[in-house]
Amino acid sequence: MTHSPWWARDRHADRRPFLLARNRIKAAIRGHFEAQSFVEVECAQLQVSPGNETHLHAFATQAIGRDGGQYYLHTSPEFACKKLLAAGERRIFDFARVFRNREHAPVNVPEFTMLEWYRAEETYDAVIADCVALIRLAAGGGALAYRGHSVRADADVQRITVAEAFARYAGIDLLGTVTADASDRDALARQAERAGVHVATDDTWSDVFSRVLSERVEPKLGFDAITILDEYPRVEAALARASARDRRVAERFEAYVCGVELANGFGELTDPVEQRHRFAHEMAEKERIYGERYPIDEDFLAALAEMPQASGVALGFDRLVMLATGAPSIEHVLWTPPIGRT
After folding, report:
1. What residues are paired with 240 via a beta bridge?
2. What does the DSSP assignment read for 92-147?
3. What is the C-alpha end-to-end distance of the chain, expressed in Å?
4. What is the pLDDT of residue 138?
5. Helix, strand, coil % over all residues of the chain, rounded to 5
6. Inter-axis angle of helices 124-139 and 317-325, to 10 degrees?
7. How far is residue 165's CA from residue 233's CA, in Å, rounded to a whole number?
8. Mean of pLDDT values over 260-273
9. Does a structural domain hold residue 66?
């Protein structure tokens, strides 16, 4: 059976209430930030590096003209935002259009809106509170819903560490497999297999971690209340600073509702030497797995040395609107769905 295109009048009429709600939610969020003296910024989409995380994939383009060179559509405005913090901005937000290749899951699209914001010289807990407030603001005092599940936005927030979640949902002692500087792949693999998670012989510690997270942990999160999953192992937080409480983990959190990841936030790493080391590791892994690597943005590392301590969050705005409106799919909240998502 063939479907009419998204621009067919009947289909657009069905989607239009969700699209108008999207506009209202965006306006409310913009007002929320402006009331707290945030400045809205617009980061350039073309960058010399799209980001340096192993499993993030970019769209590349070639410049024509005297300078030539290869550029990438950014996967996040993060590098540019941090340069603005180095330049002296203190509270900023961006409704950024971002681009990610190899995105095929039901709530993933290759071109989408990322709401990203930063607080200079403010704590990790401050941006977690921001995240919860924005999710509740989008819900407008009602519920958040997805695929037959519904969550009251005003229910008490649940906060659980990654280690606690691995123990609760998979029976795995996660922190027993890591130190501040190393990880024990075999120890994690044995526990994962006992939990019924398949482990391939060439899986790294990070591969096993990701499989347990996606198969055993994420499907359990956010069904009773907005859930904050935090204190990721440092190896899984390439741009986050280490926790002062436990050097094995980092100040990284994700927010979940109805099993959907909505946001990813950090207490930001500001050490350019450590950041370079992490980028090199991530790109070596990318080349091993995918046969490619992205350049390192040297200008970003230079700015990082001047950047104040800060905390920031990247939130999937389209996903938030989908959950806040109860839309049946992410395509219902996109004014013009990307290629292949009609």
Report:
1. 268
2. EEEEEEEE-SS--STT--SEEEEEEEEEET--HHHHHHHHHHHHHHHHTTSEEEET
3. 14
4. 98
5. 40, 20, 40
6. 40
7. 13
8. 96
9. yes
Question: Residue 251 contacts by C-beta under 8 Å, 6 or more apart in sequence?
Answer: 124, 230, 231, 237, 240, 241, 242, 243, 266, 267, 311
pTM for this predicted structure: 0.95
Sheet holding 46-47: strands in order across? 46-47, 70-73, 59-62
**Cβ–Cβ < 8 Å for 233, 249:** yes
The CATH number of the domain holding residue 324 is: 3.30.930.10
Instruction: Calculate the dihedral angle through the C-alpha atoms of 22, 26, 28, 29, rounding to the nearest 10 degrees.
Output: 130
CA 275 to chain centre: 18
* Domain tally, the chain: 1
Q: Is 321 exposed, middle or buried (0-12, 13-18, 19+ CB in 10 A)?
A: buried
* Domain containing residue 63: 9-157+225-333
pLDDT value of residue 66: 73
Nearest to 97 by CA among 317, 342, 261, 325: 317
pLDDT given at position 1: 52
Given pLDDT bands bounded at 50, 70 and 90, which one contains residue 149?
very high
Q: Does some domain include residue 178? A: no
Q: Which two tokens stand for residue 300?
A: 């970003």
Asked if residue 260 has pLDDT above 90, the reply is yes
**Is 263 contained in some domain?**
yes
Establish if 213 belongs to a structural domain. Answer: no
Contacts of residue 14, defined as CB under 8 A and 6 or more positions apart, other chains included, come to 332
The structure tokens listed for 269 are 């790493």
